[in-house]
Amino acid sequence: MIEHHVRVHPSADRLAREEQLAWKLAEVATATGAPEADSAAMAVNRVIDNASVAVASLLRRPVAVARAQAVAHGASAPGASVFGSAERVSPEWAAWANGTAVRELDFHDTYLAADYAHPGDTIPPLLAVAQHTGRSGADLLRGIVAAYEVHVALVRGICLHAHRIDHVAHLSAATACGLGALLRLDTGTVYQAVQQAVHTTTATRQSRKGEISSWKAFAPAFAGKAAVEAVDRAMRGETSPSPVYEGEDGFLAWMLDGPEAAYTVLLPGPDEPRRAILDTYTKEYSAEYQAQAVIDLARRLREKAGPLEKVRSVVLHTSHHTHHVIGSGASDPQKYDPTASRETLDHSVPYILAVALEDGVWHHERSYAPERARRPRTVALWQKITTVEDPEWTRRYHHPEPEQRAFGGRVVITLEDGTVLEDELAVADAHPAGARPFGRQQYADKFRTLAEGLVAPAATGRFLDTAERLAGLSPAGLDGLFPVVDAGAVAAYDAALPKGLF
Q: Locate the MmgE/PrpD C-terminal domain: which residues (predicted)?
């Protein structure tokens, strides 16, 4: 790996573009070749994973709204497919609709380091452009692996959340790079696209604070759509704000650490294999990733705890990130509000821990149902749960070796009679270092479970077979990555939506 040192430069420095981070990212993209077998296999897993959660969210309002907006923007042939629709649309709008569907349930892959990431959010725009431009499955795989490589590098090297900047700024850069690899664009074109994408998708983290709205699902889709448009513009010879990261009025100077900002981003050399996708991990449960191990831990503790009415307090000792983002350290009263939105509850580890202790299972719909959140005994237990930051868990969260990182914590339950029960879990059971890591079978089972009722068994089989053959798919074969769903159920749901401008 090559260390790229990034700092702010005054305009008078005339920083050569070859020394700029955006150029270095573009070089990673344009030098990406056919992925190694294990990286390609993991990319197939993530295509299956994305389709699983997209299908499961088709009858949810934000996804239906995004789908309706996309369908209003049809394209001349060939266009791109939209989950839940037979229509072909312009690729940037397919990226919008499919990106929202993938993100809505907070149920696909993750990477956590200096910042947060859902690198699977790069796949919808890549697939849309691959369809529209007649690229093959091998081209799509190359683009996915390149996008993951860039996304993971940025998340390792540059922290956005410390400055309350939403993580989609890294997503847009990674997507532009993935598109460059997919289309085999030259480095200069990808460089310009990265700069426009980053410049137009820098937003605050208010979308993940307080009463969290449906924009949480739309935000990555917006970044993907912006990246597609940035690539189109750059391909036409247009330039972008430069240097977008290092400029004296740029991203680092005014959005992050200020004029003295300095970061180190590790990037692979031209001939190094692109393996960052193997450091990422998916979710077994529909909840913020730092809650995955907590759900497994709650399932383990519930039998030991006995009647939960006798619990005096529950304290989760965990990392800085977990405590301040989804725990009581966020100081968001909404995280304890029984009337809060689903988006808020899936970012409330006190709520998640309460329900998991009571039920011993987690369901992407039933666990968030309003009647479930308002159950009096659940509310009573929920109010007894707090989190605290433990420096040791923070250290483990940031461990330099991926296999040593810990995203869980230690739960201490104190009963009314003074009895103390405690247990800890470093990573979720489904994590690559967990008790039962996800493999191809688990990804396929996740699809079957989430698609039940909307995708017929025969269509499920066809989709899984197509996905597993991704490396050899022709351009027309990419259509098979959109499973055939119950069109009547989708149409009936869509018909009830209010109308907008389009």
A: 285-466
Helix (H) or strand (E) holding 387, with range, is strand 385-389
Q: DSSP letter string over 53-81?
A: HHHHTTTSHHHHHHHHHHHTSB-SSS-EE
What is the per-residue pLDDT for 36?
A: 97
pTM of the predicted structure, to 2 decimals: 0.95
Domains of the chain plus CATH, in order, are 25-242 (1.10.4100.10), 289-425 (3.30.1330.120)
pLDDT classification of 74: cutoffs 50, 70, 90: confident
- Estimate the crossing angle of helix 440-451 against helix 457-468, to 10 degrees: 150
Strand extents, DSSP E, 200-330: 262-267, 311-318
Q: What is the DSSP letter of 454?
A: T
CB 131 within 8 A of CB 479: yes
H-run or E-run covering 50: helix 37-56
Q: Are 66 and 126 in contact (CB under 8 A)?
A: no
Instruction: Tell me the C-alpha distance between 205 and 310, whole Å.
Output: 38
Scanning 278-326, the segments in alpha helix (DSSP H) are 292-305, 320-325
pLDDT in tens, 436-472: 999 999 999 999 999 999 999 999 999 999 999 999 9
Q: What is the 3-state secondary structure (H, E, C) of 191-204?
A: HHHHHHHHHHCCCE
